[in-house]
Amino acid sequence: MADTLTLGWIGLGKMGLPISTRLAGAGRDIAGFDRDQERIAEAAAGGVTPAATLEDAAGRDIVFTSLPDDKALRAVALDGPLLSAMRKGAILVETSTVSPGISAELGAAAERAGILYLRAPVSGNAAIAHTGNLTCFVSGPRAAFDTFLPVAQDFTRAQKYLGTQEEARYAKLSVNLMIAVSAAMMGESIVLARKGNLAWQDILDVLTNSAVGSPMVHYKAKSLETRDFNSTFSCRQMAKDLDLIVGAGHAAEMAMPLATLTREIYGALIGRGDGEADFIAPVRLAEWLAGLGEPDLDKNDGRLA
User: Fold this and answer.
1) Is the CATH number of domain 170-300 1.10.10.10?
2) 3-state class (DSSP) for residue 35
3) Which residues form the 3-hydroxyisobutyrate dehydrogenase-like NAD-binding domain (predicted)?
């Protein structure tokens, strides 16, 4: 049955474009819509059927949204035509990182419209989205998840069903909190080692081969070998997610000291002009606070002397 499902994709941005073209490459019947005609053309080149309007993409068995923030989701799904354009009994799969609050609003509106709503934020970045190595956390009606699962397996390596309400939203925010705090810690640790006159590559090797050598540390150490700060997920995007994280924590009546401090680190990076740099850029801020310039890797391998 899953192979005959028709798919619609709304939002062909950094994540939506590679995921939708991967689904097309897997033989899925998928139509894509974005306000940017160039993105629609790129998706079409990857096998996605161009949708002239949002309504054309929404009239399918499973409709995905991949949108930048709460404001965009509200404009498309709550104030816009999405739900009214969908078939009753169709499945809406929302893949973005948004607040539990707006997600709950959408859940209530979808239920009134007879739409089955799955919260399915993906974990991973645009650099790997085309490879199928993303993961997704899912909450919503179990039967809808069972229908969606074969499609999810075409673009993710792991899928975790978590419950019927906003559990997936909290899971994604929890993961992103760990990533953000880890990036800030990694930056400060590297600069402490520089102050102790470790060579740049030596401290990266120490971190990756120690007890803290998580997959994220391994991944980011590789780009830091050449101080590559080209964005896979930007400081500005991380700041947005940290705002959601702190807001969710406060709504749950819990203190968020680490999240709040880390948000200020990313705010400082944005203020210094690093908003579009990769989220591992806290190393730059830590260097500046420590009175260090960027290491000359060619001349002294990052040592101070």
Assistant:
1) no
2) coil
3) 170-285
